[in-house]
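Long-time lurker. I teach an intro course on protein structure, and each term I like to show students one example going from raw sequence to a predicted 3D structure in token notation. This year I'd like something fresh instead of my usual example. Would anyone be willing to generate the tokens for the chain below so I can use it in lecture? Attribution to the forum is fine with me.
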Amino acid sequence: MRTIFAKKKDITHKWYLVNAEGKTLGRVAAKVVPVLRGKQKPIYTPHLEVGDKIVIINAGKIKVTGRKLQQKNYYHHTGYPGGIKTESLAKVIQRKPTFPLEHAIKGMLPKGRLGRKLFKNVKVYAGSDHPHSAQMPEVLEV
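-- Reply from a regular --
Happy to contribute to a lecture. Here you go:
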């Protein structure tokens, strides 16, 4: 039995549209990432980009459960001694509404070159307008 690997000519990318309004942050990310990786396809190959492209709209209207708006924090370091910066989820959503969903998706993708390449296949928009209508994306229910 020989292992079958996907070739560039066999790979086709479809476009999907996800409406995140009223959906839970982690559940949207968990449904989107396998489609980005291509795990639902029979030609799935772990080291290749066989997944589809996804457009996520209404990311600014995503919800979280519990008291995560006040308690969940995002950290980054400035590079200077003692330069750790903390920001709550509520403040991050006001400043950049697409960041929490992008951060969750990026954290679920593989680390390295493949993960960075796959992350370019997801487009996240805070409102309902997007410039990808020419690609005729299919609606993906989450």
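Some talking points for your students: The domain at 12-64+97-129 is CATH 3.90.1180.10 (Ribosomal Protein L13p; Chain: A;). Strands lie at 15-19, 53-57, 73-77, 84-88, 122-124, 138-139.
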